[in-house]
Amino acid sequence: MQIEKKVIHLIKAQLWTIKKALLTLCIHSCSLSLLCITLMVSLQLSAKNSKQEIIIVSDSRSPASAIDLATQSLYSIQEQLKDNLTFNEVFSTHRRAWRVLIARPNICIYNKVKNADRERFSIYTKYPLVVFPPNRLITFDSPNLSYNVSLTKLVKEQKLKVGVVAGRSYGNKLDEEIDELQPYLIILPGYLSAQRLRRMFIQEKLDAIIEYSAVFLADTNLDIPSERLSFHQLDTATEFVSGYIACSKSAVGENAINLFNKVLQTEENQKNLIKMNQKEFPKTEHKAIEEAFNKHHNHGKP
Description:
six-stranded mixed sheet; alpha/beta; 12 helices
């Protein structure tokens, strides 16, 4: 009898794995086929205790030993909601993740910049998971380049080949500048495009890339002496960038956001997220990170 139970449990686990794999294919095709609809209903019905299922569409597929800051932060919040929601995770590209969120009622994505255009078709948490010092322009062997630089001047006047990720938000002002400079930039689309850009950069196929300094320095696949690198402040990227959870604009999505907000607003989680964020950056950034978090939590308070 005990063996039969184990076999049944194993079969159920394998069926669940197959369903998740098929769901990932549906996410990537982003089509409302009969198979996809049937699969979504099946997954929802099989959720324990009829808890609502939230599908987290991630554009980060790091190995378990190198989970990025945003994913670590999300997992810590999800763990506190395991009695309220059922979470499943699939992987996609930046752009496809947004298309799926629009098409499905129970999709959430994370580490996303909040702006008015995106708020037309998604619901954001009130509080961020992560706050980052601004994106930096990262270059090789540029001792004579000033710390404060203009992206427009660098690509138009100095003809620097600068790489950016298609579909990524770098912050409102910098996004506008990038949009205007598209013909002058190297724009890389597709899955793992940020990692591919970093590899192109260290292979000296690019003069510079735009990236968070901590993200770049944490990439263990990049074998390059730090003294050869320089990090520059862009004149359109001087503010901290906050990464939020965004969910489908639906009843299911709104319920998930309300639950996320309830957890994120607690003082304990605020302190924990501050510590997790500070751990990824030099001590010189720690005070500013704490102030950035506190600003979000104190907004509107007397």
